[in-house]
Write a structure and sequence with these properties.
Layout lengths: L1 H9 L20 H20 L7 H28 L5 H17 L7 H25 L8 H19 L9 H9 L1
Helix pairs in contact: 2-3, 2-4, 3-4, 3-5, 4-5, 4-6, 5-6, 6-7
């Protein structure tokens, strides 16, 4: 949220928007390096989510499986949503950002959801990314150079709520509605 306020206060880069507030393409990096970065982050997520148990037990396998399923499902849903519903615009950015949004969204709940629910979370996260990616740049006219707010801000909020929405009841510390209130807070 601080980043959202930061890009609002700093304003867009010179040349990002034309006089009619239309987004202008700005090639800031090489796509191969961007995708390599996504792959390195994805690998790191195995250690981050898998290591969150502070033990090497059977839970780690399920956590890493859930992490991969959510990231992959978000990648596919972001691509197909961008391809069919968003005029094939910024597909590489949506694939990369969608994957990361799936990884962010599964982080809070990776130990309490089933693999099927991980797929659902990932599918929803990819679409959430695409909507907010467009909303931030084209509707709010905010210049987020790496798309971090759609990924971490909105993907993170969604993932936090997923603990209560998709968590297995026996693995939650409270009933589902109380857990949702806690997660919302």
């Amino acid at each position: 949220w601080i980043a959202l306020m930061g890009i609002y206060m700093v304003g867009p880069r010179i040349g990002r928007y034309d006089a009619l507030k239309r987004v202008q393409p700005m090639k800031s990096s090489d796509y191969s390096y961007s995708i390599l970065g996504v792959m390195i982050l994805w690998l790191g997520w195995w250690g981050f989510n898998g290591g969150s148990t502070l033990a090497f037990n059977n839970d780690v396998v399920k956590i890493i499986l859930n992490t991969n399923l959510a990231g992959a499902a978000a990648c596919f849903s972001a691509f197909f949503h961008g391809y069919f519903f968003q005029k094939k615009k910024d597909l590489i950015e949506k694939i990369a950002g969608g994957s990361l949004t799936g990884l962010v969204a599964i982080t809070a709940c990776c130990n309490v959801v089933s693999p099927i629910n991980s797929l659902i979370i990932g599918l929803l996260a990819g679409v959430i990314h695409n909507y907010f990616y467009v909303l931030i740049a084209e509707k709010w006219h905010l210049d987020d150079p790496v798309g971090a707010i759609a990924v971490h801000g909105f993907g993170g909020v969604f993932g936090t709520l997923c603990v209560a929405l998709f968590g297995e009841a026996e693995l939650l510390s409270t009933d589902r509605w109380t857990q949702l209130a806690i997660q919302f807070l």
